[in-house]
Structures are given as C-alpha cells and as structure tokens.
Amino acid sequence: MTNADNHELEHPMAYAIARSSISAPRRSGGIAFFRAAVAAWRQRRALERLDANARRDLGLSQADVTREINRPAWDVPQSWLV
Predict the structure, then answer these.
(1) Residue-wise pLDDT tens digits, 11-55
(2) How far is the CA of 31 from the CAs of 6, 25, 27, in angstroms?
(3) What are phi and psi of 51, to 5 degrees?
(4) C-alpha closest to that of 69 among 49, 44, 38, 50
(5) Where are the alpha helices (DSSP H) in 12-76?
(6) How far are the Cα atoms of 5, 37, 38 from residue 9, in angstroms, in the given order?
C-alpha cells in the first residue's frame, strides 16, 4: 500500500471531494492554499446540508459527515496545492 493509499484511508471524504467535478486550484504558493481552503470550506458546508437520503445515496453515515465537516479548512489533499 502506498503512502497515498494510506492517506486516502485516513481521509476518504477529502479524496471523494477532490475527485469530484469541482476543479482544484492549480497555482502554487499562498494563493493556491487560500483557494483550496475556501473550496474545502464550501464543500464541507454543502456536505453538512445533505439530508439523510442524499448521504445514504453517497454511502456516507452521519459520523462520516460529522468527521469531515469538523476538519480544519486548511486540511486539504496535497494534490489541490500543485
């Protein structure tokens, strides 16, 4: 198992979000970091608003959602900062 696989197991929601149709920032430095943090914050707020049926459709439990929305905004996949 690679390091990326280990990280994916630790934060499955972040990888699901990163693979979504929302484009990740492609600038380096502080601007990319800021954009990634704002994108993560927005996506986590949207995740928080999902009803039980939508969560079930995505295969997520309330515990999964709670864990993801309580992560800090700056905790984003490294690939978003490239």
Answers:
(1) 566 555 555 545 544 555 788 888 888 889 999 999 999 999 999
(2) 27, 9, 7
(3) -85, 175
(4) 44
(5) 12-18, 30-48, 52-58, 62-69
(6) 6, 21, 23
